[in-house]
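User: Structure please.
Assistant: Input sequence and predicted structure:
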Amino acid sequence: MDHMGVDFQNIKIGVVGGGSWGTALANHLAEKGYIIDLWVYETQVKDQIQEHRENKVFLPNISLSKNISVSNAFDQVAFQKDLLLVVVPSHLMRETMIKLMDRVPDKTIFVSASKGIENKTHLTMSGVLKEVFSDRSEEKFAVLSGPSFAREVACGVPTLVTVAAKDQTVAEFVQHVFATPTFRVYTIDDVIGVELGGAVKNVIAIASGIVDGLGLGLNTRAALITRGLTEIRRLGLRLGARAETFSGLAGVGDLMLTCTGDLSRNHFVGKQIGQGKQLQEILGEMQMIAEGIKTAKSVYNLSRKLAVEMPISHEVYRVLYEDRSPADAVYRLMTRSLKNEFDEV
């Protein structure tokens, strides 16, 4: 027994989602010694993991633990679990969770590691979870976020994340489940702030990629990241988040990583656009999902509804969905009316 009174060795864990991040986290937990039931959508991925202990589609060249049991069936992943880690693309969150709805026991704690904002409802991923599982206590839901590329986590690179939950006991439970000498976990109670940081940074990362694709230099990129953080904080404050959350791991930490790292899918998409490629052409060549593309639409509509000024995010939306020129977007941002730097309106 641990000091929390929990027998951590015998915790039953399910992971829903076999993309790069879901696979990396499942393997992280499996290598810590947990027996993991992993649900994946693709039969091909299931077969690869069973036969070769490798997810060749989404996380190639990473040997996966024998503690992972993989399936395309929902029953196995949900049965009698203490913790259910949800790592599906944001636009598939609701339909996937509806299929799981009657299979998850009441005791289960949900941990969302998905980053996005649902297009129609403008809910964060834990918001979608809470709506689908509306009979569950709000204290059963937690969120994991921070600067963490899947491949680096899978390779054991020292990584720091934060777990947000309304209930501190739940946050500490999840913290202890995930923490290892190479994966340090902090706790926080600002769930909405952590989720907005994780979602909106993908939109800013597309903008950062566009800047790099246009060859505009490091001054421009640093300015964009800084002002992008201002936009994220603005939206967060309007929705009840705390300002200091955005100077933490789920805020500026994740933003810096996604806006500058070579492994960032959103930065890659933006860079290709900056270099003159069309969005559909880029997406046709990508195996993985860049969450910022769909989130850009959610952020655009939500910020307009709430009258929150987010000029960078709006320009990303126009480039993606209205076929505006990236160079014109930069010009419009640079020639906006002059103002005080810390005007949060």
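The chain is about 50% helix and 10% strand.
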